[in-house]
Write a structure and sequence with these properties.
CATH superfamily of the largest domain: Dehydroquinate synthase-like - alpha domain
CATH architecture of the largest domain: Up-down Bundle
Number of strands: 12
Number of helices: 13
Bound molecules: nicotinamide-adenine-dinucleotide, glycine
CATH class of the largest domain: Mainly Alpha
CATH topology of the largest domain: Dehydroquinate synthase-like, alpha domain
Largest sheet: 7 strands, mixed
Length: 377
């Protein structure tokens, strides 16, 4: 349930995973404390900061200064910005650079960036020397509410997204909301799709709160911190109960089965960002659920209206240049990690805040649904 908005929200969320439990700290200006927090949890550790070229230009010097002021040695690895850095080639470069920087088992990798950097750096940390610890410093809204929490790390295969990876939890997540001030508006909007997702999958009161407060979340200030905190608490609770996605964690994939196929089908390009694909995929998941008689059409209208008010695509025709044909999309859906021996698993909904896992969905039913959607686009 969504707590009422207060000026002084508690700013730490615990991810309760026994000996691998960690904190997510949320607040403005926390990057300045990076060194002190690392020193407190890992005295004597050296660090390698992994970032991308865009974030690196804006925030890397401040991160390095924060470490230096606490007497922490750091090296830097900077990769090109964008989804294409979640590749074998860049993964290899990052691993080799961590080894060249002579990081040892007690040292730390620091992921400074969005979901791409968190996934890539976390996966490299999980592999080098059979596992180095790492700290997430998420710099996008999407990464602060979702990807930096829960330990899913990985890179993309030519067959689809995130097909090579590992569960590897960070030891700390520092969500400095001031870092979002430099995020391009389009990237903020894309991240908002994952914020709305948390309401849509299991917290109708939070979705209703977002309907009233979306503009304040976009403007920044306490509403934004409140929304990030709600999402992190929601995700932390699910992850602590189902770290390896044997059950309810799959609910976090609401909108992602359609979304990943659309994103891959658009070549992981600027035509459709990950969060935009999730927005479109979420509306498709609601429509597919309605086609099965699970919910009223008015619920779809509410979801689509809210996502559209945030400037997100909600229809196939909103994607510049269009989307690939049904055959290509079905091939990509067939590669999704949520496929078990050929049958599809989808996250469907009985209403806003009422997502559930549906196994054994017939691929032909999905194919004919997509054929209708594309014909009407
Ligand atoms: P991203 O990491 O590519 O960042 C988006 C863009 O914003 C990049 O160009 C980046 O350079 C720039 N940027 C980042 N922070 C900035 C800042 N503060 N100021 C200015 N520019 C900034 O994309 P994303 O949307 O953060 O993450 C998407 C990725 O996250 C996808 O690969 C997706 O699969 C993954 N993801 C993972 C999980 C998980 O649980 N591991 C969950 C959701 C999404
Ligand atoms: N973003 C989906 C998950 O972390 O499980």
């Amino acid at each position: 349930m969504t707590a009422p908005l207060r000026q002084a929200e508690p700013n730490a969320v615990k991810v309760a995973l026994g000996t691998r439990a960690y904190d997510i700290v949320i607040g403005r200006g926390l990057l300045a404390d990076l060194g002190e927090r690392i020193k407190a949890s890992r005295p004597g550790a050296r660090t390698v900061i992994i970032s991308d070229e865009t974030v690196g230009k804006i925030h890397l010097a401040a991160a390095e200064a924060a470490l230096k002021s606490s007497g922490i040695d750091s090296a830097r690895i900077v990769v090109p910005a964008g989804e294409n850095s979640k590749s074998y080639a860049i993964f290899e470069k990052v691993c080799e650079a961590i080894i060249a920087a002579r990081l040892e088992r007690n040292d730390l990798v620091v992921a400074l960036g969005g979901g791409v950097i968190g996934d890539l750096a976390g996966f490299a940390a999980s592999c080098v020397r059979r596992g180095l610890d790492f700290v997430q410093v998420p710099t996008t809204l999407l990464a602060q509410v979702d990807s930096s929490v829960g330990g899913k790390t990985g890179v993309n295969s030519r067959h689809g997204k995130n097909l090579i990876g590992a569960f590897h939890q960070p030891i700390l997540v520092i969500a400095d909301t001031a870092l979002l001030d430099t995020l391009p508006k389009r990237e903020f909007r894309a991240g908002y799709a994952e914020v709305a997702k948390f309401g849509l999958l299991g917290d109708a009161a939070f979705f209703a709160w977002l309907e009233k407060n979306r503009e304040d979340v976009f403007a920044g200030g306490p509403a934004r911190e409140h929304a990030i905190g709600v999402c992190c608490r929601g995700k932390a609770a699910i992850v602590s109960r189902d770290e390896r996605e044997t059950g309810e964690r799959a609910l976090l994939n609401l909108g992602h089965t359609f979304g990943h196929a659309l994103e891959a089908g658009c070549g992981f390009s600027d035509r459709l960002l990950h969060g935009e694909a999730v927005a479109l995929g979420t509306v498709l998941a609601f429509e597919f659920s309605a086609r099965r008689g699970l919910l009223a059409a008015s619920e779809i209208g509410r979801v689509a209206a809210h996502l559209a008010s945030a400037g997100l695509p909600t229809q196939v025709k909103d994607v510049p240049g269009g989307v690939p044909g049904v055959d290509v999309l079905m091939e990509l859906i067939g590669q999704d990690k949520k496929v078990r021996r050929g049958t599809l698993t989808f996250i469907l909904v009985r209403g806003i805040g009422q997502a559930f896992i549906e196994n054994n969905v017939d691929a032909a039913e999905v194919g004919s649904f997509l054929t209708e959607k594309l014909a009407n686009a």
